[in-house]
Structure formats: structure tokens, C-alpha cells
Specification:
Elements lengths: L25 H4 L2 H13 L6 H17 L1 H12 L3 H27 L2 E3 L8 E9 L2 E5 L7 H13 L2 E5 L5 H14 L5 E3 L4 H9 L4 E5 L2 H14 L3 E4 L5 E4 L5 H13 L11 E5 L3 H16 L15 H9 L5 E4 L3 E2 L4 E2 L2 E4 L16 E7 L2 H9 L7 E4 L3 H10 L5 E3 L20 E2 L5 H6 L1 E9 L14 H11 L8
Parallel strand pairs: 3-4, 3-6, 4-5, 6-7, 8-9, 8-15, 9-14, 13-14, 15-16
Antiparallel strand pairs: 1-2, 2-18, 7-17, 10-13, 11-12
Helix pairs in contact: 3-5, 3-6, 4-5, 4-7, 5-6, 10-11
């Protein structure tokens, strides 16, 4: 969702319609259990855990992204009406960055780490070995149909796993393309994409995988977590929620308005970390809303329905759900709709209360409700009274206020004086907590997510300082034992 990490040529030609090298729908030819078994056999061979193999597969992934970038841009346009440049910067460029970062750092990540040992274990050696889980399952959503399936795949490959990908059937053109890209690039015993809806999800839930990475709604995430619990399978859940955007009276209003409009209406608001609602200090509310209205026009023109820079709602059912929320409050800007075109214009809504329907669920669309507050204490209390969000945005030049927001609120992450860009860097783990998810990824975080860190204790000589029965008087040895077991006071 930010600028490309490197300058890659954009191939806009949609030229890869030839038949893939393998059948893209393996589930048609064998049951889910057989697919998992084949991957488990491949993992047991040890091939996926070799450093050179992981590097080779990451390079294949990078080549695949280059080869198919025109097709991805076209599929995203067909599914979501995404502008071509928007698809490149918010999906493809970010995936290039993830792959390049993993290629540059993989050897370091794979290297076992020596652990500092207590004095009592002076003749021992402690190490922490990163090892893959085995067969990982990545379940992705429809709103960013390429980035949210291939970005976790980078971590799974880097960690040495085999991977089953389940793209969303809602973004049908993108799902078909993901399956074809994967079949054209990887051995299906190693990476496989399985298409379908509940008829595929149910057997995937019933089958034991070794790690589950799910991105989507809280309701569906709970179902995957329940399924994982039956096998004691570890999970990462990347969910969503109502991410607040707070603007205080010391914010740069022009900067705040421009960045809020971009972050809210990118992908027609169908972004899990989009600002869900606006909390604005009452003294600057009128001016901020004027500038927000200005930037909507600046970005998308007088009629966003004809703009090449504005997307569409994914399907009719989501259109209907979002349009019903327009009954809340008073529309200040936008509010125009066309169901036949799946178009809902960038919309700002005032006179909202916490009881309004629009405040009862994640909007996941181009509606921006506005609530005002007096003192910052009030805004903090409003946020803390609700489930912890995936993202929290704060606009202010006051560093003391910035510090208060970081310290006194809880969220997956805090972004100050910007929107969405926290997703764009490989050096900041990205994830939620509570209703907004669990676990994190990106960069080293992706490797860590798909890795089990195995502790190894090696006693190298037969002599040690451990006291065994018959035990001495505890009072005499209490202080001595504490010192013998002391590691040190420095952070590891």
C-alpha cells in the first residue's frame, strides 16, 4: 500500500492465457487428504528445508510475479474494478519487496542462535534451532487477492514448509489466476492452490495441517480457529475490525485530510486497515471535513463513478450490506450509488452516534462516519471502550499527545500522521490482537510465524554442578543456588 521498494518494469499486457503446465484444480482429481499426504511425504524427504532449495523457490516466486503481473492487474480490474496503478503499488510491488527481503536475509534467519547459559551449566551449550512446521495452509480473502495469498507464502517458503493455498472464491477471476500461476510455477507436492467455497473449506478444516494462516473476517476466523483446535494446530489470524482515525487540534489539517482520503477510499474502502471512522477534535471538525471533501474531488473528480482511479464493490451482497449503512447519520459528501455497476461513491457521514448501525460493524466500504470529541482523554476513552482494532491512526504534531496514544490505547499497531503505510515495510511486524487477530508477519516476522524455534540443550562433559539426592539443607544452599542459576541481567 505504499511506493514500490524497487523499480520493476510494469508489463500491462494480458498474455498468459495458454494452458498451464499442470491441472490447476488438483482437488478435482484427488481428495484433500491425498493432497495433504503428498505434501507431507515431500516435506519428510527434507528437500524443502535445504537453504539452496528455499532460495530457488523464492526466486521462482519472484519470476512468477514478474511474468504474471499484467494478468494480475487485469484480474483485479475484473473482480474489483481496481485501477491498474493501484493494483501494482498496493499488491505487486509489495510482494516484490517481501521476496527480495527474504532472499537477502534467509541465511541469517536460518542460522541457529547460541543461548547464554547459567553458571551452573558452564559445561553445557544451549542453542535455538529454527525449524519448519511441515504442511502449512494459507487461507486468503478477496479484497487483495494476490498480496494476501503470496505474501504469507514468502514466509512459508523461507521457513522451509510445504504450502497449500486457498484463495477466495469471491474474487473468482483472481482465484483462477492464482491457481494457474501456482500450477505453472511449483511442484504440487510442494505448493498447491485449491479453489472452491465451503465444499473445499470443510474438508480442509477437517484435515490436519501443521500451521494455519488465515486472513478474513472475525466470524470465519473463529471457525478456522475452532477447526485448528481439534488438531492442536497453531494459527495466525489476520482479521480486521473498526480502526479509528483520531485527528486532534494540533494536526496539520491539509496533510491529515489528504492522507485520510487516500487511506479510506483506496480499493473503494475494502481494506482491512482502512480508517473505519473518524474521531475529530470539535474545534477543527468543520475545516477538516471541508478539506476531506476537497481531496475526494481532487483524487476522483466531480463524478467518481467515471474516474479511472476509483474501484468497485466486490459483489451485490456486499453492495447491499454497505448501502444499508447509509441510513445512518447525515451525508456530507458522496452517497451516490449504482448497483448495476457495483458503485458506491466516496462518502462522508456526519451526525453519527455510537448506537448508529454504521458503528456496529466493520464498514469495509467507502463510507466514512465522523464523530467529534472535546479533550484527547475523551477520544482515548472512546477507543478503549471498544474491541481492540487492527490499526489506530493519529494525526497530531504534539509529541506528548502521540506518546499518550501509543501508551494509553491498545491495537494491532499505531500509525502517526499517515495511513496504511505501516503495511508497506518489512521491518515492522503486522498483525492484530483480540478481535482483530493474533500473530504477525512481514519480513522476519513472516519467517518467525511459519517457524518453530527448537531449544537444544547439550551437556558436553560428564561433570556438572547439579545437586542430586540426598539433598543438603536448603537454607544453607539457597543463596548459592540462586547465583549458580543466574544468567545475567542483559536482554537477550
Amino acid at each position: 500500500m505504499g511506493e514500490p521498494q524497487q523499480n520493476y518494469p510494469i508489463n500491462l499486457e494480458h498474455t498468459h492465457k495458454e494452458a498451464p503446465l499442470q491441472d490447476i484444480s488438483l482437488a478435482r482429481d484427488m481428495d484433500i487428504g491425498s493432497i495433504v499426504d503428498r505434501q507431507r511425504e515431500f516435506f519428510a524427504s527434507g528437500a524443502s528445508q535445504d537453504y539452496s532449495f528455499r532460495i530457488e523457490q523464492l526466486q521462482k516466486l519472484k519470476f512468477m510475479l514478474k511474468k504474471y503481473q499484467g494478468d494480475m492487474i487485469q484480474a483485479a480490474s475484473e473482480d474489483l474494478g481496481k485501477p491498474r496503478f493501484e493494483t501494482f503499488i498496493s499488491e505487486i510491488a509489495l510482494m516484490f519487496g517481501e521476496v527480495d527481503y527474504a532472499l537477502s536475509n534467509l541465511r541469517c534467519w536460518m542460522t541457529p542462535e547460541k543461548a547464554k547459559m547459567p553458571f551452573a551449566f558452564i559445561a553445557t551449550q544451549g542453542s535455538i534451532y529454527p525449524e519448519p512446521y511441515g504442511v502449512s495452509l494459507v487461507v486468503s480473502p478477496w479484497n487483495y487477492p494476490f498480496m494476501l495469498v503470496f505474501s504469507p507464502l514468502v514466509g512459508s517458503i523461507a521457513a522451509g514448509n510445504c504450502t497449500i493455498l486457498k484463495p477466495s472464491e469471491v474474487s473468482v477471476n483472481s482465484s483462477h489466476l492464482v491457481a494457474r500461476m501456482v500450477a505453472d510455477t511449483f511442484d504440487p507436492r510442494y505448493v498447491t492452490a485449491i479453489e472452491g467455497g465451503m465444499e473445499v473449506n470443510r474438508p480442509l478444516m477437517a484435515e490436519k495441517s501443521d500451521y494455519i494462516f488465515f486472513t478474513g473476517s472475525s466470524a470465519v476466523g473463529k471457525a478456522w480457529m475452532e477447526a485448528a483446535a481439534k488438531h492442536l494446530t497453531p494459527v495466525t489470524l489476520e482479521l480486521g475490525g473498526k480502526s479509528p482515525c483520531i485527528v486532534d487540534n494540533e494536526a496539520r489539517i491539509e496533510v491529515a485530510a489528504e492522507r485520510i482520503v487516500w487511506g479510506k477510499f483506496l480499493n473503494a474502502g475494502q481494506t482491512c486497515i482502512a480508517p473505519d471512522y473518524l474521531l475529530v477534535q470539535e474545534d477543527i471538525k468543520s475545516e477538516l471535513l471541508k478539506r476531506i471533501t476537497h481531496y475526494i474531488g481532487s483524487f476522483y473528480g466531480k463524478n467518481p463513478a467515471t474516474s479511472r482511479n476509483y474501484g468497485r464493490i466486490i459483489n451485490g451482497s456486499h453492495f447491499d450490506r454497505i448501502s444499508r449503512l447509509l441510513d445512518s447519520g447525515r451525508v456530507l459528501a458522496g452517497g451516490d450509488m449504482n448497483r448495476d455497476d457495483l458503485y458506491i461513491g466516496p462518502t462522508v457521514i456526519d451526525d453519527i452516534s455510537w448506537d448508529s448501525a454504521i458503528m456496529q460493524e466493520e464498514i469495509f466500504g467507502p463510507l466514512l462516519p465522523v464523530i467529534s470529541y472535546g479533550a484527547l482523554d475523551e477520544a482515548i476513552s472512546m477507543v478503549n471502550a471498544r474491541p481492540r482494532p487492527l490499526a489506530l491512526y493519529f494525526f497530531s504534531t504534539n509529541t506528548a499527545a502521540q506518546d499518550r496514544i501509543v501508551r494509553e490505547t491498545s491495537s494491532g499497531g499505531v500509525t502517526i500522521n499517515s495511513t496504511l503505510l505501516q503495511y508497506s515495510t518489512q521491518t515492522l511486524p503486522y498483525g492484530g490482537l483480540g478481535n482483530s487477530g493474533m500473530g504477525a508477519y512481514h519480513g522476519k516476522g513472516s519467517f518467525d510465524t511459519f517457524t518453530h524455534y527448537k531449544s537444544v540443550f547439550n551437556q558436553r562433559i560428564p561433570v556438572d554442578f547439579i545437586i542430586r539426592p540426598p539433598y543438603p539443607n536448603l537454607r544453607i544452599f539457597n543463596r548459592v543456588l540462586q547465583r549458580l542459576l543466574l544468567v545475567g541481567r542483559k536482554c537477550r
